Amino acid sequence: AAAIRREDYTAPAYWIDSVELTFDLDPAKTRVLNRMTLRRNPDVAELPLKLDGEDLNLARVLVNGQGTSFKMEGTRLVLENLPTGTDAFALEIFTTCCPAKNTHLMGLYVSQGTFFTQCEAEGFRRITYFLDRPDVMASYTVTLRANKAQYPVLLSNGNLVESGDLDEGRHFAKWVDPHKKPCYLFALVAGKLVAREQKIRARAGTDHLLQVYVRPGDLGKTEHAMNSLMASVAWDEARFGLPLDLERFMIVATSDFNMGAMENKGLNIFNTKYVLASEATATDVDFANIESVVGHEYFHNWTGNRVTCRDWFQLSLKEGLTVFRDQEFSQDLAGSPSARAVKRIEDVRVLRTAQFPEDAGPMAHPVRPDSYIEINNFYTVTIYEKGAEVVRMMHTLVGREGFAKGMKLYFERHDGQAVTCDEFAQAIADANPESDLARLLPQFKRWYSQAGTPRVKATGSYDAAARSYTLTLSQSCAPTPGQSEKLPFVIPVNLGLLTHEGAALPLQLQGEAAAGAPSRTVVLTEASQTLVFTGLDAAPVPSLLRDFSAPVVLDIDYSDEQLLTLLANDPDAFNRWEAGQRLALRTAIAAIQGGAPASSDILPAAVVDALRGVLRNPALDAAFKELVLTLPSETYIAEQLDVVDPQRIHAVREAMREQLALALKADWEWAWEQNQDTGGYSPDPVSSGRRSLSGMALHMLCIAAQRMGDEVWPGKAYQRFKVASNMTDRFNALTALVASGSVHAAPALARFHALFKDEPLVIDKWFALQAGAPDKGGNVLPAVRQLMQHPDFSLKNPNRARSVIFSYCSANPGAFHRTDAAGYVFWSDRVIELDAINPQVAARLARALDRWKKLADPWRTAAREAIARVATRPDLSNDVREVVTRALA
Ligand code: DPP
Ligand code: ZN
User: What residue stretches are annotated with the Peptidase M1 alanyl aminopeptidase Ig-like fold domain (predicted)?
Assistant: First the structure.
């Protein structure tokens, strides 16, 4: 397939004003009658009408009620003899499709006897012939007809205007969406479902009905999703003045879903993973994810649905902005400054372990890409998480109030339109004409056009005679595919200076009359800039890029001493955590590159003591301690190296963990005792932080016990596993047993399966834990093959496929990167096998070897061969073809 290029964008030759869809739902053969009103677009030269379609059986085409000639161009339906002039005309298309056989989970499909749709990005064309592009916005009226006993609930977007019985045990429901929308926001659901309902009154006094639909047995697990939805509605009104614009807002859960969730207008469809939660079945992380995904999809109602994308190159217009909004929502709900910092650290960790590698690999693309072959491949961490960082930098440059003004202007200008990233940035800048953003807008927008992660190199020198400190900040960005030269970015750097003892210093730049606040934002625009701070009695310790104020790599030569000062004292919690990560990272890298065998004394004593100090510090929250005590991931460590030996990285990191387990044994025991739950379960940040730290302590104590041949802590872990009153504690205990290779692991796994055999989301955890277990002499791959033979395994269910195959290939580097290449052969077999079922999921898996060029041999050669083996298949989907072609380029 040919690449689609952003610069080739042209407006559509026709507009579709209204769509009337009638569905006769039947798993084997669903009939779709599509009656549209169209107009020629007077701004575009006269062209034939070319409608997108895929996997459809076409039965009839009528123009103004009359038969007409048409032809097929590939999978497109082409109509040339349409009425001339610009008057509206009627086009009627009748097709059938087979939802039961739709394993792609795009378009109309059946999951456990219920009909669902997924249309973003280009799934609507699998339902009917249409102008399947986001800038064609129409009014929808939808009539659903189906057997009443099998499909008692019939849902679509908007408001239910009519329903009733038909003959032969059938019934119907008619829905009208009061808002115009692009077809990717169309949805229908039909099946046996029940709903939790909640009536709410908005600030403006309007009444709304919120509903969360699930399968009958799952109603008890919907309270948290409903609470999250109510919180989302209230937050968007309070923070941005954006109200709910629908009488009825519905969420429906399905267990077969490619993504996390989908923001269809008024009818969000969710992966069950992001809806269902009870304390017995869901972990604290699940609860937090539900809150943020419910928020995310709800916030799309304005950022995405009211104002949508002109074309798919603008995807980050809605996704980057909406991720920023859901991150802020979670932070605002978390409340305390410390809980906000924890959320920020977690978000940055995702960015650095997933997006930075993407930005440095074969799939690197700008936040606003220039071309794609398959748009499904561009729902990436770059579009989402880096896109959110770009919005966050705007927020930093104009301030919280200024950003809210910018959002207001954006909606005043563009409500009801399909627009571009440029138009968003322009609105934020225009609402803040005096801001750095307005002054620097064209340069700032390089964040949208240039791929790659910029590096900022910081060097400082202290002049005792002048009592000044000179800080030079230089930026660069490595070439990425198709972009050899990069121009300087606009980089906001939040910074401060500390004394060697850790006190914050007031900041005074040369030329300033007086010393000011101890923290400020410096905006880098040049390749290199120098700042001179005055009035300093001694060399300061710089604290740069506080709160991770820009998505860059900061290169700075700290001494261990300086990092220890920052770890113990930085008023910025993010940089405190970062100092600990830098200390661990430099130790790991030295050990990886040194020749010595990985042993238990890698971390210097001062670092171990400092980490003990954090663990014992009564002023710090448990959640923050858990983050500081967690070593950088193997993926993150690998990213810092030019040549990667995954086994060496794994061995060194495991040795460091063992060192912390042994050296801090008494402290872990103390932390375990200190952080036991008292009272009932609540997923709030304070209690979940305590569970996360006590879980880590238990894990460390089991590692120490394994080393010392002691059975006390594994015994306690097994006991905790058995009596735990919530999934977080239970699963942490199970993880500690499995990861430390305890004799209790096998009976605990068996018991866990027996307890939760009817809870698919828990069984996913059971599979994932085993596929992600530490490798012992190559035992994980045979175990994974065994798991695929388990009666509960299915390749067709994306959650289940991810829980086994992705957990092994993408999240277990020590077990996956085998010297005998068997992990890679397994990977290529699964990519090929999955591609025949579900190309979107297969293409995700295909990306597990993105960074193969960094690998040392024998892995490098073996990885290339495995990718080439996939690439030689003649029948690959566009999805997988694009990924492997780019990987080999
Ligand atoms: N469902 C995906 C999301 O919400 C795509 N829009 O991000
Ligand atoms: Zn989204």
Answer: 452-556
Residue 475, domain extent: 455-557
Handedness of CA 310, 311, 312, 314 (dihedral sign): negative
Final residue belonging to a domain, choices 192, 218, 252 = 192
Report, as an integer, the average pLDDT of 679-689.
Answer: 95
Residue to probe by mutation, ligand 1, list 289, 312, 319, 376, most atoms within 8 Å of CB = 319
Which amino acid residue places its CA nearest to atom 6 of ligand 1? 262
25 lines ligand 1 (CB under 6 A): no
The four Cα atoms 675, 679, 683, 688 give a dihedral, to 10 degrees, of 0
ipTM (interface predicted TM): 0.98
The pLDDT score that the predictor gives to residue 570 is 98
Q: How far is CA 252 from CA 3, 205, 256, 417, in A?
A: 35, 26, 12, 27
Which of 120, 298, 308, 376 to mutate for ligand 1's pocket (most ligand atoms within 8 Å of CB)? 120
State the alpha helices, DSSP H only, in 22-96: none
Confidence band of 565 (pLDDT split at 50, 70, 90): very high
- How far, CA to CA in Å, does 678 sit from each of 334, 653, 691, 800? 20, 34, 11, 34
What is d(CA 229, CA 247) in angstroms, rounded to the nearest whole number? 15
Q: Within this chain, do residues 29 and 178 fall inside the same structural domain, yes or no?
A: yes
Q: Is 297 in the pocket of ligand 1 (CB under 6 A)?
A: yes
Centre of ligand 1 to C-alpha 268, Å, is 10
| Atom 5 of ligand 1, residue of closest alpha carbon | 262
* Whether residues 434 and 460 fall in one domain: no
The pLDDT score that the predictor gives to residue 305 is: 98
Q: Is the CB of 120 under 6 A from ligand 1?
A: yes
Atom of ligand 1 nearest to the CA of 318: 6
Q: Which residue has the tokens 């999250």?
A: 228
For residues 320 and 383, the answer to whether their CB atoms sit within 8 Å is yes
Nearest CA residue ID for atom 2, ligand 1: 262
Q: What is the CATH number of the domain that holds 43?
A: 2.60.40.1730
| CB contact at 8 A, 150 and 114 | no
The answer for 44, left when phi > 0, alpha when psi is -120 to 50, beta otherwise, is: beta
CB 86 within 8 A of CB 93: no
317: in domain = yes
Rounded Cα distance, 599 and 587, in Å: 13
Based on the structure, what is the number of domains in the chain? 3
Does residue 32 sit in the same domain as residue 176?
Answer: yes
671 lies in some domain: no
- The string of pLDDT tens digits covering residues 30-40 is 999 999 999 99
261 C-alpha to center of ligand 1: Å?
6
Q: Which helix (H) or strand (E) holds 674?
A: helix 665-674
Which atom of ligand 1 sits closest to the CA of residue 384?
A: 7
What does pTM read for this prediction?
Answer: 0.99
- Ligand 2 centroid–CA 234 distance in Å is 19
Count the neighbouring beta carbons within 10 Å of the beta carbon of residue 200: 15
Q: What is the DSSP string of 716-757?
A: HHHHHHHH-SSHHHHHHHHHHHHHTT-TTHHHHHHHHHHHTT
Helix/strand/coil (H, E, C) string of 5-28? Answer: EHHHCCCCCEEEEEEEEEEECCCC
Strands 248-254 and 267-271: parallel
Give the whole-angstrom CA distance, residue 458 versus residue 390. Answer: 22
Last residue of a domain, one of 170, 192, 214: 192
- Any domain includes 151: yes
The secondary structure element, H or E, covering residue 191 is: strand 188-191
The residues near 317 (Cβ < 8 Å, ≥ 6 apart) are 309, 419, 420, 421, 424
The radius of gyration of the chain from alpha carbons, rounded to an integer in Å, stands at 28
Three-state SS string over 344-394 comes to HHHHHHHHHHHHHHHHHCCCCCCCCCCEECCHHHHCCHHHHHHHHHHHHHH
Question: Which residues place a Cβ less than 5 A from the ion ligand 2?
Answer: 319, 322
pLDDT one-digit tens code per residue, 512-563:
999 999 999 999 999 999 999 999 999 999 999 999 999 999 999 999 999 9
